[in-house]
Structures are given as structure tokens and as C-alpha cells.
Amino acid sequence: MNLDRREDRLKEWLQQLPDPWPFPQPERFAAIDGRRCATPPQWKAGNGAWGCYRSHCLILEKCLIEGIDSYVVFEDDAGFVEDFADRLQQYADELPADWGLAYLGGQHLFAGKHPPQRISEHVYRPYNVNRTHAFMVRGRENMKVLYRHLHWNEWQQRHHIDHHLGRLTQRRYQALVQGKNIDKESIAVYTPDRWMVGQLPTKSNICGRKWEQTRFFNDAKNADHSDSPFFAVLGPHRSGTSCVAMVMHHLGVHLGNQLSGYEATGGGEAVGLAQLCESAMRFPAIDPAWPDHQLVQKLKSWIVQRKAEANRDKTVAAGKYPHLCRFVRQLHEALGDSLRIISVNRDIEASIRSLKSRSEKHRGQWFAATDEDCERLQRSLLEHRDAFIASHPEVPVFHIDFSELTTYPEEVINNLIEFLGIEPTAEEIAAAIDHVNPQLRKHG
Asked: What is an example of a GO molecular function annotated in this UniProt entry (predicted)?
């Protein structure tokens, strides 16, 4: 699919086709130029997106009218992996017999909450796929369903064709994976485990942006960014976790988009994570009110978004909230091998005294508790954290003694940097060291 005014892109595209090429010789389809035709009044997504939508509709109409039972479409910014032919063959051999739409490239949306379902080694059923630069369509009845869907009046403002196709994909997933009753038509949509077609570093005809290299988005095998670590800062209340979290924040670690906490110098607690934890287990409770599956899903959804943001910013993601000591088993279930633990250790009696002191200063506030509740909660959080660490020796753990941090901040922080696997600037390291205040040890 190529605009008449972009002969340069067609030439570049043909020159980079993989060898061997597993399909018949590509046939150029003259794309609709959104600049040259009027968009309907309800269309708010721009001229380029209108041209893209109409071009895909015309390809589908051509196949229906001419009795063509299958087609593969590539937009002229589609770039290929080196072993494209071999990986395509693996994918095609494993596609279920009912497939109607099979993506070769794209981007998984909402994957944290709705992860792609594994069908075989190289095939997944997606929840929602974004982008239309490379996909295959098969079967006349499937084409009719696709055509009707693309012409229904259910467009949302500023939505492109790929968003519209994403809603079609969701129907099948919701019916087969989530057990919902879907009364509209659906077709079987699949994706490969790893994308084999990305987007070339050319200027987009739709958004106008230009990339530096071929872009491959999150794929099914790693839609939840399982190959990116997540660092959980674990310790009871008043144990030094706020100090450690803020040290990590100064080092460039991504702990969330809006940080809060009790400490005047910053608590390093993401507002969203704090709200999630308190909804699941209201302070000073010691057991969650949510069932495991709900807690696992909520934690994973929040963390996957933070991982994606951290990857974007070329850093690592982390989270801090005392409840995570109680939720560490669910964290592990949500994250698997990507979980990393930073265990902050402080004398439990000192932490209990500090929490009691905080509660005494703020009687009537939601974060204040009786002396009995303070002691029960602190010991419960510590026991759950330490029991998990002892029973899961395969999970990487970095232990920080709070008294050592306040006495030898530079040494401890350098060791922490090595565990995090990051390369902060000299200014970031200096800011992290400066954040540590020896007076924090006033409760022992």
C-alpha cells in the first residue's frame, strides 16, 4: 500500500525485501491520499488516517468483488527481521485452522490487564492489536465480517482503523478467554510470539514522526515486559524504605508518575500503587480483602505500565509500599522471574516504636493505629517478607541494613547501583548520597 506521491518509499521498500521472499511478487496498491479527498464530518482522526482507513477498505472490497479468498497487505513502512521466511513458515504451520486474520507485525494494547493467550509455541490469541503495517486475511466469510465491522457506525472520535480492528479482536478474546457473551460477529485473530515485521525509520504519513531505526513493539511473548526486571522495595513501616526508594528515585529509577508518602523529603510511594494497596488491605489490616487472582491481576497491570515507561526512559522500574511485604507472594505470581527484591532491614523494635510515635502524632488520621495494631502489623509484614525470601532462594535479593546506609551511604549506594544494573550520572549519584540523613535513625 503506497501513495502515488511517495515513489521514494516504494523504491526503498522493494530494495529491503527479505531474500528469500516467501510470498508471490508484491503488487502495488495505490493508496488513497487523505489530503486530496474530503473527510466526513464525524471523522476527527486526520486526513492521513482517513486515507489509511479507506485504502484498507478498498483492498478488502477488491478481494470480495474479484473472488480472492486470501491476501497479505504491507504498508510501505513495513520492515522485516533477517530470518523472516523461516519465522513466517513456523508461524503459518502452527496457525489454527479457524484463523481469519493473522498479524505479522503490530503492537499489543492493554496487555498488562489482558495478556495474549498462548496457543502454541509460535502462535498467540491477542486481546487488542494496534497498527496495520502487516497482516494476512483469509476466507470469504471472514472478509465479509471484517467488511461489515469496518463500516459500522461505532467509530470513536480520534480513532484510526487499527483501533477499530482492535475492538473486533477483543470480541473473540472476551468470548473464548473471559467467558463473556458476545452477540456481535467475530473472527479468529492470531499473532506470532515475536513480531517479524516492524516499522521502518521513515517519516509517517499519518503522525509525521520519524524514527531512528526499525521499530518492533511489545510482542506476545513479552507483552507484559517479562524480560524487564521490577525491583520491589520491601520493609515494614518506618524501616527506612522511604529513604531507599528516594535514593533510587535520585538514581533515575522509575517508581511511578506521581510520588507521595509520609516523609517530608519524599516517601517514594507512587500514588497509584498506594491506592491499590490500601484498597486491597486497608491499614492497619494484616490480610488482604481481595482474592489472590484479583490482587495478582491488579499488581501486574500497574507494574506492566511502569515497566513500559521505564523501558521508554531507558531505566528500570520499581515500587515501594509497606503492604508489598504482605503481597510478595502475589507479586512473584504476577512477575515470575522478573521480580527483584530490595530488602530493607532495621531493628523491628525500632520500627514499631517509630510507627507508634507517628500514630500518636496523628490520632484520628487514617494512617494512625493503636499500639497493639502497630506491633501486630509490623511483625506480620516482616514475617511474610522474610518467609518468602527464605523459601525462594532463586529470587535475587539485595539486603540493605538501614544503619549501614546512614553510616556509609556512598558504599551502600554504589552496591545498590550494581544490583540495579543501571548507569546513573555523577550528578544523580551525588543527589542520592545527599538524600541520606543520619538523623533518620532517631528511633534506634
From this structure: transferase activity
- In this structure, are 192 and 265 located in the same domain? no
For 215, the domain range is: 7-222
Round to whole Å and give the CA distance between 161 and 119: 26
- What confidence tens digit (pLDDT) does each residue in 359-369 have? 999 999 999 99
Q: Is the pLDDT of residue 444 over 50?
A: no
- Beta-carbon contacts of 389 under 8 Å, excluding residues fewer than 6 positions away, are 341, 343, 395, 397
The CA distance from 237 to 346, in Å, is 10
- Among candidate residues 189, 222, 255, the one where a domain is terminated: 222
Sign of the torsion formed by the C-alpha atoms of 285, 286, 287 and 288: positive
Instruction: Tell me which of 222, 241, 268 is where a domain ends.
Output: 222
| 3-state SS class at 37 | coil
Query: Which of 377, 407, 210 lies closest to 286 in space, CA to CA?
Result: 377
Q: What CATH number does residue 317 fall under?
A: 3.40.50.300
The single-letter DSSP state of residue 60 is: H
pTM of this structure: 0.69
CATH of the domain at 66: 3.90.550
